[in-house]
Known about the structure:
The protein has twelve helices and twelve strands. The chain is α/β, with parallel strands linked by helices. The protein has a twelve-stranded mixed sheet with strand order 7-8-9-6-5-4-3-2-1-10-11-12. Pfam families: Mob_synth_C, Radical_SAM.
Amino acid sequence: MDKAPTLRDALHRPLRDLRISVTDRCNLRCPYCMPRETFDDHQFLARAEILSFEEIVRLAGIFVNLGVRKIRLSGGEPLLRRNIERLVERLARLRCLDGSDLELALTTNGVLLADKARALREAGLDRVTVSLDALSEQGFRRMSDSRFSPARVLEGIARAQAVGLGPMKVNCVVRRQVNEDEILPLLRHFRHSGVVLRFIEYMDVGGCNEWRPQDVISAREILDRIGAEYPLRPLEAAYPGEVSQRWALVDGSAEIGVVASVSQPFCGDCNRLRLATDGKLYTCLFARQGLDLRAPLRAGEVDAALAARIASCWQLRDDQYSELRHIQRRQPGRKIEMSYIGG
C-alpha cells in the first residue's frame, strides 16, 4: 500500500495520536480535574450535543487516513458511556495507512473496569491505563472526593490483566502535602506485577483546580524519593513522542515512568490531537478554543472536506504551552477543562 505524505504541524511535528473524549461526565470528583464545588452544579452536555458512535467512527476513519496510528478513548469517565464496547468494536476495524492495525487504548479511573474488562477486550481494545492516585482508603477518598474504595480499582486492574488488556499502566497525579506519601506504597504494591506505574506532575489544566507551582512535586524529586529505596536505571523511550520518561528498578521488579510537563516540558515531540465529546477539535491539552467538526459533519459535509479542515488545523498548529507556561498563563481566556477534553 502506498504511504501518504506525513502531515506535519507548523513546528514539523507529525500527527500520530488522537484522544477521543466520549463523555464529559465522571463518577469521581478529583479536585485537580472535577472539583466538587464547581461540578456538582455543572450543566453537562445534553445527549443531542454529544457525538454518536457513528459520528465518532466516521471522524476516526478520517483521522486514520491522515496518519493517526493510535486512538485513546477518554472522558470524563469513558466507561460511563453506555455500550462503550460497541464503539470499541467498530474502531478496532480501522486500519492504518500502511495496512497495520490501529492501536486502540482507553484511560479510566477503574471503578467500573472489573465489570467491563472482558467485553472491552473481546471488542478489540488493546490496552487500558488506570488512574489511581492513592492506595490507602483515606488517601484515595481525599484524591477522588468519593466514597469508592481503592480495592474496587485494584480489582478492575487485576481483571483487565487477566483478560489480556496490557501492558497495563497506572497513572498517579502527585500533589505536595496531599498524596506524596502514596508514592512508595504504590510502587511497593505494583512491583513484580507487570504494571507500569507512572507518576505525573500536578498540572495547571483547565481553570478550576486552583493550581499553584508550589503544589508541584517535580519528576526529579519523585525519582529521588524512589531511588533512595530502590536504585533506578534509565530506559530509552518506547516510541517518538512518548510523554513519560521511562525508568526501571535495577532489581528488575518494576518499570516506572514520570510525566514532567511542568519541570521538563516535552512539547517539541507532541503528536496529539484531542476530539472533545461535542465534536470540537483541540490541538493542545491546555487549549482555550477548538475547531467545531460536529456542525459540518451534521450538515452533510463529505469526508474529503472534513479531512481538509482537520489537515489545515494541524498544519497551523504551533502550540507550546508547557514550554512557554510563564507567558501562556497570562494570556486571556479560560483553558478547557480536562474532564471535557480528555487527559
